[in-house]
């Protein structure tokens, strides 16, 4: 079980990094310092962005569950 949780943690960590980097900068943050604020913003969010948000939240929840599972495994093993 510990091996499964460790592999799940690594996979979800890498996937979470990739998904966060795929998000478009909303402006005003670090992304605008590197030229992200120059691009024109469209009104509203597209379906792709909404699905990317959902996938990122789902991946973050799996990551959190694997962290808690590893913590419980360490505590009770």
UniProtKB/TrEMBL annotation:
Membrane-related topology note: Multi-pass membrane protein
Transmembrane as UniProt keyword: yes
Swiss-Prot/TrEMBL keywords: Cell membrane, Membrane, Protein transport, Translocation, Transmembrane, Transmembrane helix, Transport
Alphabetical list of Pfam families matching this protein: SecG (PF03840)
Compartmental location: Cell membrane
Position of the signal peptide: none
Residue spans crossing the bilayer: 55-74
Annotated family: Belongs to the SecG family.
Function: Involved in protein export. Participates in an early event of protein translocation.
Protein name according to UniProt: Protein-export membrane protein SecG
Species for this entry: Rhodococcus baikonurensis
Source taxonomy: Bacteria, Bacillati, Actinomycetota, Actinomycetes, Mycobacteriales
Gene name tied to this protein: secG
């Amino acid at each position: 079980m510990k091996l499964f949780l460790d592999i799940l943690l690594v996979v979800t960590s890498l996937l979470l990094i990739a998904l966060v980097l795929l998000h478009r900068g909303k402006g005003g943050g670090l992304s605008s310092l590197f030229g992200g604020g120059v691009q024109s913003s469209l009104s509203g969010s597209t379906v792709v962005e909404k699905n990317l948000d959902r996938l990122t939240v789902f991946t973050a929840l799996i990551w959190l569950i694997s962290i808690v599972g590893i913590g419980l495994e360490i505590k009770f093993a």
